[in-house]
Amino acid sequence: MLQRPPRQQFAAICYRTKKKTGDLEVLLITSRDTGRWVIPKGWHMPGKQPHAIAEREAFEEAGIKGKAGVEPIGFYTYMKKLRGGHKVPTRVQVHALEVKNLMKDFPEKGTRRLEWVSPEEAANRVDEPELKNLLLSFGKQASPSPSSGKIATRVA
Fold this sequence. Notes:
single chain; alpha+beta; Nucleoside Triphosphate Pyrophosphohydrolase; 8-stranded mixed sheet; 8 strands; disordered C terminus
């Protein structure tokens, strides 16, 4: 049987720092079908750059407005369950997205749970091993810069 190449999705690790403590938090959302903890992600959109797709999915799925880095911080793979029940290998390109605003109204409001957690807690909650590693790496790399207070998001 011929193996098809993996499908491609684009995702965002949405992050912010707590004002009082400076602790890094990342956003997890539940998937609509299984209720598993995931990050916002979606399929290719003609004419849109990958980081712009990540920004759009973060808004549609979680009401997040922010800026995603143009360069991906990593990738993970999983088996995407399609309608009808069959599964396809899917490669997800992940971009760091600095949260600027949380919107009260967004397209998928009420269909998912949203929680802000530490990168370590996020890694404990997600199922995909490569995403676990990506969240842990992000937590180590994305520490506030002492001079600017900004987050450095380069993950190897």
